[in-house]
Each structure stands twice: as structure tokens, then as C-alpha cells.
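Need residues for this backbone.
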């Protein structure tokens, strides 16, 4: 992909400079707090900052421009956070997001909630009103007089660490806490609020080196516990249920499965951690999952299931009792609060551990087979090939077949599906053999996550990444303009059916008829070209292959606007059945 990202090497010089006399006149031996915060972020290993500037964040923004951190100005704060999430999940490098006061901060919160749910590491930097102006209705006042402090400015359910920098002397402690959080396994979402007056305070340049030297050992368990797990698993046939939290242990999981003959299933987010083409893969569970999983449990039910790195949340399991083996779960997760929550009535041996460390330790207790044992044939997901029609709208099944051929098998692209029918079709029909190439949000599930997150994924891997989205999501939030500004060759594949089709199909299945979910006809290629991107409108199935190949070879942001047949029902019945089980029926209204 050489030459695709040329502007990223010159971003700092190409952006307009903020003229601040304090920054230009500060002696070398000292600096402004804004400059010190940027230096701290550099030493924490931050390479990208995404956000939207405003007057209140001006000094910090100016300091970013004169740093080694690549600064990208987005069009909406939530889009900046979604891009930061996908960038981190693609390459494990923390991204900074910056906002201005008031609505700048609140606009970012949807993305921040998603970051917490998705397991990302993101640092939010926002300004706050200086103490001399608090309570006096300053423009976009952000202070205890106008904003809730709990969670937003303090550590809690929103941020693992949050602080308002009231004195420059706090910087070393802030740096130490950020460094500690960034070295922990799992997510870390932090918020540092910088009052405007504090940003331009002059201080001696801090030495952050000592605060960042934190070595955190992997969380694992005793040899006795590992031996106990091995004994339990070897007693009788067992299954493995892998989730996104085990993506770094893919090779060890494959070795464990092949050594034991265990059947393997995955959560929707876990697609590809265990190759979906492997003979021992029985399918994806939960939303848009595969019937082969239930076939396996019905005819070859394991005695236990080893659960690795998944919360077994609603969209992973629907808490279906048919997925519970007779002797329960051995549930391993880095978060000690996860095991036993989804199925509180089921016998569960909960283990807090890094997944890779646990599986590699377990392998030492699992002997290599001395002779090849009789192979038990396991049910596998069915993959149908749909021949293109000459006439009519594009069927979503045909579109997914072609995405599989051109993008999944023909490139290294990360593929992100948006909340909605895009998620359902992609999860059910696409097949991956490598971890990390499929991304979907099954927790917070915000529309607009994929439409903007695709920029972060593309930047992180320095190759084209692809978002499969609905027309409703694309109209809600996208960052085409940002992609054009920084020459990021992201690709959007839009399922353009003129409606919120998941809502439409789900409502009808629940007996809610005649809901207004239509969207006026939209030409997304015209939108793309008006912003400096490119695109192709696809109205016939025969044109799909060329359109996708053109998109993947493009050096500029590209939209494939597919006029999709709205009639095929997406494989989302499990969600509707779960709603129905909660008493949600059209007759209630």
C-alpha cells in the first residue's frame, strides 16, 4: 500500500497553526502544561490523536501540532472515538481523543461508552472552564455548576481513570496512573480534563521517564488449578467456546483443540480466532449464529465447555439453556467478575487469567496423542453459493458471497459490520480463518460505529479496511470528509434498501405492523464524490465483483452503493425470539 498514506507523514506541517505567544516565548528549560501533557502522551507511546478542536482546547491542540503525534481533525467527536477504538483493536496502540468544552465533551460520550464495552484503550483529553469563570454562565461552561461530576470527571462506570488537572504538580501522578492503566490487560478508558487557564501555565519540563516504568506480570493461576482443569477436561468430551478476549491466544487454542479433538464454537466477535473452515468448528453462537451449534449439542453434547474470553452476553448466547453442558462451564476471563454472570444457575469454575497464558499452561498437561484416534465427524456451518441473477435488486446473500471472494479471501482487509442487518448477514455468511479480521459490536452496538471506525482500522494496519453498513447508519454518522482530508482509503459497502430494515423485519416478526421505517432514496455515490471521494452504484448482481475489485484497488476513499433487495429476511430470528420471550408482542400495544 506504499503511497496510499502520503499526507499522514506531513499532517503536522499541513494543518493550520494556532498562534499563541505563550508557546512561542516559553524557554526550552520550561514549558506550558499543554506541552507537558503532549510530552507525557508521547512517552506513553501515543502516535495518533483524533478529535475536533475549539477555543477551550486551543493550547493543547497547538502543542499536538508541534509534536510527533499525528493529529487528525474529525467531523464529529463520536466518530473520532469510534475510529480510535478500531485503531487500538487493530494494532494495540492507544489513541488520544480530544474535544472542546460543553457539547464537544458530551458528543464524545457515545463513543466512550462503546470503548469501555469493546475493550479498547483510549485517552480522552477535554478542557474545562477555569475556576475564575465557573458558575458565571461562561460560554459552553463545563464545571461542577453545569455538569454532573460523578463518572464524567471521576473514575467509575464510564472511565477507569478520570481527573481534572487543577495543579501542574499533579502531572507526574496522572502520568503514573495512565501508564499503569495502559499496561493492564483488557480495556482502559481514561479522561483528563484540562482547565483552560491551567493549559497555559508555565512549568519546569517534567521528567516522565520514572513514572512510566511499570512492568505488570500476566494474570494467571496456580499450577494446581491448571492441573485440576486438565483433569476435568480429559475426563470426558468437552467443547470450547471462544470469544474476542481470546484473540491473542489463537494459535494456542488451535493446538489445544487439535490435541483433544474438542469441538469449537465462537461468539460473533470471536469469528476467525479458530478457523471457520476447520473440521472442528461447529459454528457461531448467538445473534445470526449457526444451526450447526444446536445440532452439535443435540446429538453430541459435551460434558463440559471451556469458555475463553467471552462474557456470554445476550448476543453471544441469548442465555439459551440448550447451550449448557451437563457438568457446566470452566470459564476463563481476565475480568474476575465475568464468570458465572450470564448463567448464574449453572455450575461454573471461574478462573481469572490472561487467556493465552492459561491455554499455554494447560497444554503442558494435555499429552500429544501417540496414535491417531478415531475421528468423530462434527456438524459444521453450511455455506451456500448463490448464483447472480440477471435482473432484480441485489440479494444480500449474493453480496456476502462476493465480499467473501473479493475481500475476505482476496485481501488482508479488516471487515467491520454495522449494527443492523449488515451485522446479521456478515456474521452468518462471511467466514474467516484469522483472528482480528472481523469486527462487530455486540455490546453497546451503536449505529455509526463501523461507518467511522473503519478509518481507525485502515490507519492502524496501513491497508484498506471495509465497513459493511446500512443506509440508515451511513446517514447517521460517517467520516468520508475526514478520510478525504487525510487520504485514508477506507471502503464503505452500503446496503441501500431505503429503510431501517432490521427494525422493519423485527417489528413484523413481533406483530408490529405498518411502522414507518422508510428512508428517502439516497445516492451515496453522489455524496462521496461531492466530498472528494469516489464510488460506484450497483443495481445488478452481475456488477458486484467488478465494483468490489475497483473499491479495493482505489487509492481514495470509496463507497460501493448497493441497491439491496429488502425482502430476504436476515438471520436475526434469535433476537426477535428473545424479545418475544420477554413478553414483547404486537398484541401488547
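Answer:
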Amino acid at each position: 500500500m506504499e503511497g496510499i498514506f502520503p499526507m499522514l507523514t506531513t499532517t503536522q506541517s499541513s494543518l493550520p497553526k494556532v498562534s499563541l505567544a505563550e508557546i512561542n516565548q516559553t524557554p526550552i528549560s520550561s514549558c506550558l502544561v499543554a506541552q507537558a501533557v503532549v510530552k507525557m502522551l508521547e512517552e506513553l507511546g501515543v502516535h495518533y490523536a483524533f478529535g475536533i478542536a475549539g477555543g477551550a482546547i486551543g493550547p493543547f491542540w497547538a502543542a499536538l501540532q508541534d509534536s510527533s503525534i499525528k493529529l487528525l481533525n474529525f467531523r464529529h467527536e463520536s466518530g473520532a472515538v469510534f475510529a480510535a477504538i478500531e485503531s487500538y483493536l487493530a494494532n494495540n496502540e492507544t489513541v488520544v481523543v480530544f474535544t472542546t468544552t460543553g457539547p464537544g465533551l458530551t458528543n464524545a460520550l457515545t463513543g466512550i461508552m462503546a470503548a469501555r464495552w469493546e475493550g479498547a484503550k483510549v485517552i480522552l483529553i477535554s478542557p474545562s472552564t477555569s475556576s475564575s469563570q465557573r458558575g458565571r454562565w461562561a460560554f459552553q461552561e463545563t464545571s461542577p455548576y453545569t455538569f454532573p461530576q460523578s463518572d464524567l470527571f471521576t473514575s467509575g462506570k464510564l472511565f477507569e481513570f478520570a481527573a481534572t488537572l487543577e495543579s501542574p504538580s499533579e502531572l507526574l501522578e496522572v502520568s503514573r496512573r495512565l501508564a499503569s492503566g495502559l499496561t493492564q490487560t483488557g480495556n482502559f478508558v481514561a479522561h483528563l480534563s484540562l482547565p483552560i487557564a491551567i493549559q497555559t501555565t508555565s512549568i519546569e519540563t517534567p521528567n516522565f521517564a520514572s513514572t512510566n516504568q511499570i512492568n505488570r506480570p500476566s494474570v494467571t493461576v496456580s499450577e494446581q488449578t491448571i492441573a485440576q482443569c486438565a483433569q476435568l477436561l480429559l475426563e470426558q468430551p468437552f467443547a470450547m467456546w471462544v470469544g474476542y478476549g481470546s484473540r491473542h491466544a489463537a494459535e494456542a487454542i488451535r493446538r489445544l483443540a487439535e490435541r483433544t479433538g474438542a469441538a469449537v464454537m465462537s461468539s460473533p466477535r470471536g469469528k476467525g480466532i479458530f478457523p471457520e473452515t476447520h473440521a472442528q468448528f461447529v459454528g457461531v453462537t448467538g445473534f445470526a449464529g449457526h444451526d450447526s451449534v444446536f445440532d452439535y449439542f443435540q446429538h453430541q453434547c459435551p460434558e463440559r465447555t471451556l469458555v475463553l474470553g467471552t462474557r456470554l452476553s445476550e448476543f453471544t448466547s441469548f442465555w439459551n439453556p440448550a447451550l449448557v453442558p451437563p457438568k457446566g462451564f470452566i470459564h476463563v476471563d481476565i475480568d474476575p467478575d465475568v464468570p458465572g454472570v450470564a448463567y448464574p444457575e449453572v455450575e461454573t469454575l471461574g478462573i481469572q487469567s490472561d487467556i493465552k497464558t492459561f491455554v499455554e499452561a494447560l497444554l503442558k498437561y494435555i499429552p500429544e496423542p501417540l496414535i491417531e484416534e478415531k475421528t468423530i465427524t462434527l456438524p459444521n456451518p453450511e455455506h451456500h453459493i448463490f448464483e447472480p441473477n440477471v435482473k432484480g435488486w441485489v440479494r444480500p446473500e449474493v453480496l456476502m458471497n462476493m465480499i467473501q471472494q473479493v475481500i475476505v479471501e482476496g485481501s488482508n482487509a479488516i471487515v467491520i459490520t454495522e449494527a443492523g442487518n449488515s451485522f446479521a448477514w456478515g456474521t452468518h455468511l462471511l467466514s474467516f480463518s484469522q483472528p482480528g479480521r472481523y469486527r462487530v459490536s455486540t455490546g453497546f452496538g451503536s449505529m455509526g460505529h463501523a461507518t467511522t471506525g473503519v478509518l481507525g482500522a485502515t490507519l492502524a494496519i496501513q491497508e484498506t479496511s471495509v465497513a459493511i453498513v446500512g443506509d440508515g447508519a451511513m446517514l447517521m454518522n460517517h467520516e468520508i470528509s475526514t478520510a478525504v482530508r487525510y487520504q485514508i482509503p477506507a471502503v464503505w459497502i452500503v446496503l441501500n434498501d431505503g429503510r431501517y430494515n432490521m427494525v422493519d423485519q423485527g417489528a413484523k416478526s413481533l406483530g408490529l405492523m405498518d411502522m414507518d421505517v422508510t428512508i428517502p432514496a439516497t445516492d451515496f455515490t453522489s455524496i462521496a464524490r461531492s466530498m472528494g471521494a469516489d464510488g460506484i452504484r450497483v443495481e445488478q448482481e452481475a456488477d458486484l465483483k467488478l465494483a468490489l475489485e475497483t473499491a479495493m484497488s482505489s487509492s481514495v476513499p470509496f463507497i460501493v452503493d448497493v441497491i439491496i433487495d429488502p425482502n430476504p429476511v436476515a438471520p436475526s430470528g434469535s433476537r426477535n425470539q428473545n424479545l418475544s420471550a420477554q413478553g414483547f408482542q404486537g398484541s401488547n400495544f
